Amino acid sequence: MSDTNDIEQDAELARLLFLLRKLSMENISGILNTSLPTPSHGQPVSTAEAFRIAAPAAMMIDRIVTPIWYVIGIIGNPITMKIWLSKRMRESNSSAIYIGSIAIVHFIFIWLHLLLELHIAWGISTYNKPTLCEIFNFLYIIPQYLAPLLILGFTTERYIAVCLPFKKEQFCTVRRACIVVFVLTVFSFLLGSVQMYMWTFNVERQLCYYRKGAKPFYVIWTWISEMLIFAVVPLLVLIFNILVIREIKLLTRRASFRMHRDSNNRGNANQTSTVTLLSVSFYLICTLLPATIVYAMQSVIKTGEHTIPYNKWSEDPQWQKYLIYFTIRKIVEEITFSNYACYVFIYYITGSYFRTEVHKILCFRLCRNKSKRDVQRTSTKTSTHAEQYTLITTNGKQEICQTETASVAV
């Protein structure tokens, strides 16, 4: 019996060490896939239980803030799709293709993140199953690759339109935008497909685990791909934005901005579009770069002794430092995740056309509901009025029955 307990404890300790290594090597996209280790003794516990005991503040943030982003994203992204991908916008504005595509990507990612959230924060098993493990890791990473690339796409287009106006007609077209979106999507799928090679469901540990022999490749691939998408891409976006702003200031200073704009068929809508796209680009930078910084810090901040039970971590000085970092990391995670929900507010504030269309949608819903209520009220009123005074015949006599007061006049 003692040997059996020792074997179980050794297996649990191995599970703990793996999860600790996985947490310490978590990639930037994995900041949205954070997990805590289970104790090295006793019965295994869910990640949600480990969160609740070891990092209650992080757990509270996760359970309260994340659902707010879900509600905003599930409502806002479809509205964004409907407006930016409408026939009028698609035919006249190439940037609408990028923005509409980003809304689709964000909407899909929110539902994928929900599966992860159920597992991490609520202890409901979702993707830790054979085959589903590989598929989930593959699908989960694609939107995180694709969204920054799409923002880089329309940022580059805006740079061409402002800084290289004579090439605008050649490169800033709806057809070319569709081609770029398709190419970036294929590229993201190819990058994400590597996840299916690196991860598999481990029956012994009952979780997604490195495929045998894939761990060294995982480390190298993570550094290359994550730094490319989550560091190089935001920096390129920042550089293009700086160049665009600089060019606009130069044109304004020369008092020729209006003539320059008119000569290239730029109206108020296009000027608004530039402000909108610059705002989206800077929002991406402000929400993604903190994740990059946190990712760089994780190799410096070490965990405590692995033999300490998770309910005693808060009493250990080294674990205390790590749990503070972990809570800060959770806050950064929520800031990063807002990137997938809050663009609708940027479009509403900076875009007059988008704002008008939102009002139309809301007015249509409200007016339709009001119309239904008015019809029901009228129908009820008519029915009530008809029943208030009814001419009936009783025993050969006519009686007027007032149903409202239940009195009868003969």
Task: Provide a short characterization of the protein structure.
This protein is 72% helix and 6% strand. The chain has helices at 2-24, 47-54, 56-84, 87-92, 95-120, 132-163, 168-171, 174-198, 215-253, 257-263, 268-297, 317-337, 343-350, 352-388, and strands at residues 199-202, 207-210, 389-394, 397-402, 407-409.
What would your notes on this structure say?
The chain has 410 residues and is mainly alpha-helical. The protein is 72% helix and 6% strand. Strand 1 and strand 2 form a beta hairpin. Mean pLDDT is 76; it is low at 1-28, 30-44, 263-269 and 382-410.
Throw out a few tags for this protein.
disordered N terminus; two-stranded antiparallel ribbon; 6% strand; 410 residues; mainly alpha; disordered C terminus; globular; 3-stranded antiparallel β-sheet
Q: How many runs of DSSP E, i.e. beta strands?
A: 5
Low-confidence stretches: 1-28, 30-44, 263-269, 382-410
Query: What's the mean pLDDT score?
Result: 76
- Taken from the alpha-carbon principal axes, the silhouette is globular
Q: Give the C-alpha Rg.
A: 29 Å
SSE sequence, one letter per element: HHHHHHHHEEHHHHHHEEE
β-sheet strand percentage:
5-15%
For the sheet with most strands, the description reads: 3 strands, antiparallel
Helix content: over 70%
Counted by DSSP, the helix tally is 14
What gap, in angstroms, lies between the N and C termini? 95 Å
Q: Structural class per helix/strand content?
A: mainly alpha
Give the strand order, joined by hyphens, for the main sheet.
Answer: 3-4-5
